[in-house]
Write a structure and sequence with these properties.
Layout lengths: L13 H28 L6 H8 L3 H4 L6 H24 L6 H17 L1 H8 L10 H23 L10 H21 L17 H8 L5
């Protein structure tokens, strides 16, 4: 048998990688345009036809990247959750274990929500009828919950708060207070920044109220 022709040096894997990078870049650009449309018309105002026009492509070409509008929302949800998770980790980095880490995480994620209101609404509200995030897409949110619960357990171990603060009931109460402020801001004071917002400037009071609900053992 004749020898198999060898690929040109350095080109065997380059073209597939290049195609993959171009595809991922286009998928990211589609999400950028989707966010812009949602900022203008609301989350439910996004359509595949509008998105294709914004991209200056025909709708069938758009479906090569996302098979449905719900798939676009799911990709946006994942992007937002990953960014929110990174903000939480950044807020915890360098903080002392316990309540300092909880405070840093909550402020960092709150600031992220204020800076990214369109994604925050998709993550924390349910503005799109019929859309539910997939289990894979929701996974970063579970990591956020686990990290916060662990930080609360650290705080309880250090005598800063009652151990029940790290239970489901404690996590629910902390979530209500945290996201209550975020929701009030997004709905009623979206033009203010984090430090001067009517609601967000009171975010620092949350931990004191939470400790009052779960005082440390004497």
């Amino acid at each position: 048998m004749p020898p198999t022709a060898a690929a040109h040096p350095g080109t065997s894997n380059r073209e597939p990688d290049r195609r993959t990078r171009r595809r991922e870049q286009t998928r990211s650009e589609i999400l950028d345009h989707a966010l812009q449309i949602m900022a203008e018309d609301g989350a439910a105002g996004l359509t595949m036809a509008r998105l294709a026009r914004a991209m200056d492509i025909r709708p069938p070409s758009l479906y090569k990247y996302y098979p449905s509008l719900l798939a676009v929302y799911d990709a946006l949800f994942r992007r937002g959750q990953l960014a929110n998770l990174q903000a939480l980790r950044d807020g915890m980095r360098g903080a002392a274990p316990g309540l300092d880490a909880v405070a840093g995480a909550m402020e960092a994620t709150g600031r992220w929500a204020v800076a990214n209101p369109v994604l925050a609404q998709l993550l924390f509200w349910r503005p799109v009828p019929g859309y539910q995030p997939s289990a894979e897409t929701f996974a970063p949110a579970q990591q956020i919950i686990d990290l916060l619960r662990s930080a609360l357990a650290d705080a309880a171990a250090r005598g800063q708060i009652h151990p029940e603060a790290a239970t489901d009931a404690g996590m629910e109460l902390l979530s209500i207070m945290h996201f209550g402020i975020i929701s009030q801001h997004l709905a009623n004071d979206p033009d203010s920044d984090w430090d001067h917002g009517r609601y967000t400037r009171r975010h620092r009071e949350i931990l004191a109220l939470f400790i009052n609900a779960y005082p440390p053992r004497t």
